[in-house]
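WARN  no MSA supplied for this record, continuing single-sequence
INFO  ligand: 4'-deoxy-4'-aminopyridoxal-5'-phosphate
INFO  echoing inputs
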Amino acid sequence: MFNVYPINPVTIARAEGSTVWDENGTEYLDLYGGHAVISIGHTHPHYVKRITEQLAKIGFYSNSVEMPLQRELAGLLGEISGKADYQLFLCNSGAEANENALKLASFHNGRRKIIAFKGAFHGRTSLAVSATDNRKIVAPVNETDNVVFLPFNDVDALEQAFDEYGKEVSSVIVEGIQGVGGIRVASDEFLKKIRGLTSAYGAVFIADSVQCGYGRSGRFYSHDHADVQADIYSMAKGMGNGFPIGAISISPAIKPWFGMLGTTFGGNHLACAAALAVLEVVKEEGLMARAEQIGNYLMTELRKFPVIRDVRGRGLMIGIELPEELGPVRRDLLTKNRIFTGEAKPNIIRLLPALTLTRDQADRFLEALDERLKDY
Ligand code: PMP
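INFO  complex generated
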């Protein structure tokens, strides 16, 4: 293996809901869900049934035949996201979704310049850009003068950029809540300003919802909290609950032509079955409302810990900023309390649990955190 991942010394052998077990049968609480991927809980029975039944019929055929499953998915996604008139293009991952979004914007308005924001993470492929503050920007082949990084949540900087070169801007890409960058929520004012300026200058507003989307924030897209409509929404992670699938949802104002975008695996039968199962469960079990409710509960309780510097996020996308010297708390939560969490920076704990998380599981985490914070 090419050694690029720091590995926890745990082998997961079985999983159900927000609980996972290692090969010795030791139980863990999973509050990370493999980077926000596990949206409806591990091995949800409806999900397992739908994929298994699909696999027994047909697992894959290319995008050259009628695909009723894709139409069904487009319909249900349109309904649940409240964007029934948007068009769906399916692919396989978040980076690929963003790359297609940027490319589509460029086809649409014939421009090349992209505005992104400091602290953002949009992927690692050639057109997708990433710029987390604390990491070196690795320049992919096309990340040249075409990409400008402005400060996040800075309305003045945005206005100034559009004053200077607004007519060259093809797209503005922004996460509703920055994930990798430390759980930073885009302000309503900022998102509204992006909407206003992109509309005024004929640029495309791309809402990167790969991590913050799919109901996690309590609304389908976290940008919805600001009451703005983007032109393109990109999504992946929670979409397939572990089955790789990504997509962009595209405003009806952007018109397709044959060959404009393409993919080999995107939208295959199994991926569609997985994505449909996820949406059916989100709808049936009211998971968006639940994410908001349990998320609000967690954040209210977390704010009562005097030692915690800041609690940020929305719904079940939560960042807990600790003083620098408390960085090891996250590791201790795993080794001593058997709770998986994520990190944004060494002192920021990132919670991205399944939207099915129960109040009891939230309490288990709060008690464990209380215990660990007392160690320091
Ligand atoms: N956009 C955002 C906001 C992300 O958090 C990520 C993954 N961390 C990506 C894009 C890239 O997704 P993927 O790893 O599926 O390519």
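DSSP finds ten helices and 17 strands in the chain.
INFO  checksum written, moving to next record
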